[in-house]
Each structure stands twice: as structure tokens, then as C-alpha cells.
From TrEMBL:
Primary location group: membrane
GO cellular component terms listed in the entry, alphabetical order: high-affinity iron permease complex
Cell compartments where the protein resides: Membrane
Record keywords: Membrane, Transmembrane, Transmembrane helix
GO molecular function: ferrous iron transmembrane transporter activity
Species of origin: Virgisporangium ochraceum
Keyword field contains GTP-binding: no
Topology class, membrane: Multi-pass membrane protein
Name listed for the protein in its UniProt record: Iron transporter
InterPro entries: FTR1/Fip1/EfeU
A Pfam entry, by short name: FTR1
UniProt record similarity statement: Belongs to the oxidase-dependent Fe transporter (OFeT) (TC 9.A.10.1) family.
Transmembrane segments: 12-30, 37-58, 70-90, 111-129, 149-171, 178-198, 241-262
Length: 286
């Protein structure tokens, strides 16, 4: 549940920030008539994300054991690739994402309402699809899906509340620190998802070494203890694990964390200055 809440909070806040940037641009530029097209694109992105999550769940439930394990393993690896790309992309783009979105929206307005819907859809759909894939991969092996589902809904709801109060100017959040700390936690969550994916590959017979254990604490591990639930649910640290699972966890988590926490190089200053003529504002639709 903790991992699901973190996924919902992180991905939800990114999507909320994207929407708030688009809305603020239209309100401040006096083009409120385009708001309905932005919300239409957002609604379509949410519907696609929910449908994608439902498709993953339905497909997994209608496969044989070996096919299901292989399907979940591939989904886990895909989720790890997506989350790794996402945290590094946000780390690189955080300072200029607002200007980039405003520029794309201004271009979409010049092209017409349909372009605005498509632009808003694409801006939010990425976050939604990542959320669905991460959630599907993170809850594999859970005894019940109700708790994780409520947790991710709670994370998204928290993100929406934070985004609304930030938009209203009621609070200020250090987004740099927020995305850094949640990025570190997501790397550990992704390492656990990768570990589970390796286990699924071994269960399906695609990888060897299922019974070659790196450790076995089942004799002293209290499955009902709070720390057991936290370690298993958040980082997929289980009472026992194969050598290949542990190698995958460490081989991913250590170098990715080091690269993520390295200080960024400052962007090089441009050698020449160019002055662009601003495009005329598009008329607000009736």
C-alpha cells in the first residue's frame, strides 16, 4: 500500500502540475474559452489510463500460470524502464517544463481546438499510462488488490489537493526537493519491481536459479510485523530470495541511485542572443 500511495502521489502531482500550468496560461492570457478543450483532453487521458490498467489486469487473469508469470515479468521490466526514464526526465526538465508546455499550448491554440485537446491529452496520458503500469507491477503478489487500489487513489487525491492549493497560492512546495526524495524512493520501488520480475521469469522457467537462495530468513521473519509489511510492500524485500533476484536488485538500485543523486551540470550559456517576434494571440473561441 505504501508503494502504491507513493506512485499515486508522485505521478499524480506531475500530472496535476501539467494541468495547472496549462490552465494558468489560458487564464492569465485571457483565453478561458479553450479551457473546455484542455479538460476534454485530460478526461480522455484519464479514461485511457484506467482502460490500460483494466486491460493489464484482465489479460493477466486469463493466462495459464507460466504465461501469467511471463506476462507479469515483462510488465515489471517495462515498468522499471518507464520509471527510470521518468525520474531522470523530470530531473532534467523540471526547470523548463513550464515554458515548454506554454509554448506547445500556444502553438496548439494557433492550430485550433482539436490541437488543444490532443496537446492536453498527450501531456497527461504519459503520466497516466506510467501510473497504470507501475501500479500493476507493484501489486503483483499482493494478497488483496483493494488495499493497494485505495492507496493509489489516496495518493492521487493527495496530489490533486496539493496542486489545487499551490495553484491558489495558499502554500509553496519546494518541488526540487520533493521530486528528489520521491525519486530516490521510486528507484528503490523500481528495484523491488525488477526483483519481482526476475522471480517471475524464474517461476516461468525463462531464467534458472529459482531454488539457489541468497538468503533465507523465513525462520526469524515475522510476516505480520509492521517492518515486514513495509519492506515487502515498499521495496519487495522478501523473507527469502534467489541469488539472481538479489543481484538484479543491487545491480539496478546502486548505480541508478548514484547517477540520480549526482549534482547536475549547469546549462551552458548561449553564445549568441536571438530575438524572436512574438506570434499574434489567437482569438478566444466563442
Amino acid at each position: 500500500m505504501t508503494a502504491s500511495y507513493l506512485i499515486g502521489l508522485r505521478e499524480g502531482l506531475e500530472a496535476t502540475l501539467v494541468v495547472s500550468i496549462l490552465v494558468a496560461f489560458l487564464v492569465k492570457s485571457g483565453q478561458r474559452g479553450y479551457l473546455r478543450y484542455v479538460w476534454a483532453g485530460v478526461a480522455a487521458a484519464v479514461a485511457l489510463s484506467v482502460g490500460f490498467g483494466a486491460l493489464l489486469t484482465y489479460t493477466s487473469a486469463h493466462l495459464t500460470f507460466e504465461q501469467g508469470e511471463l506476462f507479469e515479468a515483462v510488465a515489471s521490466v517495462a515498468a522499471v524502464c518507464f520509471v527510470t526514464w521518468m525520474i531522470f526526465w523530470m530531473r532534467r526538465m523540471a526547470r523548463r517544463i513550464a515554458g515548454d508546455l506554454r509554448g506547445k499550448l500556444a502553438e496548439a491554440i494557433r492550430m485550433g481546438p482539436v490541437a488543444v485537446v490532443v496537446m492536453a491529452f498527450l501531456s497527461v496520458a504519459r503520466e497516466g499510462l506510467e501510473t497504470a503500469l507501475l501500479f500493476f507491477s507493484a501489486v503483483q503478489g499482493a494478497t488483496s488488490s483493494a488495499g493497494p487500489l485505495l492507496a493509489i487513489i489516496g495518493g492521487i487525491a493527495t496530489a490533486v489537493v496539493i496542486g489545487v492549493v499551490m495553484y491558489a497560492g495558499a502554500v509553496r512546495v519546494n518541488l526540487g526537493k520533493f521530486f528528489t526524495w520521491t525519486g530516490v524512493l521510486l528507484v528503490l520501488v523500481a528495484a523491488g519491481i525488477l526483483k519481482y520480475g526476475v522471480h517471475d521469469f524464474q517461476e516461468a522457467g525463462a531464467l534458472p536459479g529459482l531454488n539457489d537462495l541468497a538468503y533465507d530468513f523465513r525462520g526469524v521473519w515475522a510476516p505480520d510485523a509492521w517492518y515486514s509489511a513495509l519492506l515487502t510492500g515498499m521495496f519487495n524485500i522478501t523473507p527469502s530470495a534467489s541469488v539472481l533476484e538479489v543481484v538484479a536488485w543491487v545491480a539496478y538500485a546502486v548505480p541508478v541511485l548514484v547517477l540520480f543523486l549526482l549534482p547536475q551540470r549547469p546549462a551552458a550559456a548561449p553564445t549568441t542572443a536571438t530575438t524572436a517576434t512574438p506570434a499574434p494571440a489567437a482569438p478566444t473561441p466563442e
